[in-house]
Specification:
Layout lengths: L5 E7 L4 E8 L1 H8 L5 H18 L6 E8 L4 E9 L3 E8 L11 H5 L6 E8 L9 E6 L5 H13 L2 E8 L4 E8 L15 H15 L4 H6 L2 H9 L4 E3 L6 E2 L5 H11 L1 H11 L2 E4 L6 E4 L1 H7 L5 H4 L9
Parallel strand pairs: 5-11
Antiparallel strand pairs: 1-2, 1-10, 2-9, 3-4, 3-6, 4-5, 6-7, 8-9, 12-13
């Protein structure tokens, strides 16, 4: 599939400073086609999509990064998942009947009483026996998405990270700069400079990037932005990657979710409804399970499995 979506990595020569630009349009339109979100929700979710791609591109493992905001305002939940191949899906859940102003801020949407939570989960695809995903949970600390992630990265990863994010109905774009920790010897990509030179390069890069305003970010392609901001810098550019929309839902995963609810609850729902209809929150795909389908789910099921709580479901 051809796509305009691009993630471009680069590093500053002779300094432990790296950067990434991302531009997501095709994938962002795919996400929006399945839901009719208010403009303010689109903005925050689109910024999360760009941020998830930027962070995922630096992970050195086969798996997915899952970013969630659990809100206490008109938006109850935002979720973006991006795997190591930059395959992305995203969804939002609003409080029923909630009114959302077009200019609502992240605080208005998700942190109205100060109880919003930001969660990042790193979920390896090839788990070792007994291995659990790594999960970090912090208060929603910041007035915008970029600040929330910057604070998380500094607190949880001890990495100086700056982000510039923007999204509208057409495109989701972002820029990440990161000051890497110094170590002895040579990195496979970075020739280490002195600590003072690293700091000087970092401060200069942040100063240049801070001239970037959101209207320019949203209206300008990433190659032009890179040339405008860093034309005087010596940077090394790597082969671009291409994000794309992908949903990992399957009938088997939905069946496993029903199994974890327990036979008694599933049978009760069947008695009321005749069959169970489940729509994927991410892609909208419809799954239907009748009484025969559900009976087959529980054939050979152990008592331990039947007692597993619904909160353990991963889908």
């Amino acid at each position: 599939m051809t796509t305009q979506d691009t993630l471009q990595k680069f590093i500053f020569d002779n300094a432990a400073v790296r950067g990434e630009f991302v531009e997501i349009s095709d994938t962002w339109r795919e996400i929006q086609q399945r839901h009719n979100y208010p403009p303010a929700v689109k903005t925050v979710l689109g910024e999360m999509v760009a941020a998830a791609a930027l962070l995922s591109a630096n992970l050195k493992f086969n798996g997915a990064i899952i970013m969630q905001i659990h809100g206490d305002g008109p938006v109850r939940l935002l979720v973006v998942e991006c795997d190591s191949d930059l395959r992305i899906r995203a969804t939002a859940k609003l409080t029923e009947g909630a009114a959302v102003a077009d200019d609502a801020s992240l605080t208005d949407l998700l942190n109205a009483t100060g109880h919003g939570r930001f969660v990042i989960t790193l979920d390896p695809a090839d788990k070792l026996p007994g291995q659990q995903p790594y999960q970090g949970i912090v208060p929603l600390d910041g007035d915008d998405m970029a600040t929330v992630i910057e604070n998380y990265m500094l607190r949880s990863e001890q990495l100086d990270t700056r982000l510039w994010l923007g999204a509208d109905e057409h495109v989701s774009r972002g820029l990440l700069l990161q000051k890497l920790p110094r170590h002895s010897g040579k990195d496979d990509q970075i020739v280490q400079a002195s600590e003072a030179e690293d700091l000087e390069t970092w401060n200069r890069a942040v100063m240049l990037a801070s001239t970037l305003k959101q209207p320019e970010l949203l209206s300008t392609d990433i190659q032009t932005l890179m040339n405008r901001l860093f034309w005087e810098e010596t940077i090394r550019v790597f082969e671009p990657a291409h994000p794309q929309f992908y949903c990992s839902c399957t009938r088997e995963k939905v069946g496993n979710m029903l199994k974890m609810l327990g036979r008694e609850e599933v049978d009760g729902a069947l008695d009321d409804l005749g069959q169970l209809a489940i729509n994927c929150d991410f892609c909208g795909k419809h799954y239907a399970f009748d009484k025969v389908d559900c009976a087959q789910l529980f054939i050979g099921k152990t008592p331990v499995e039947e007692l597993m709580p619904a909160s353990d479901i991963k889908h």
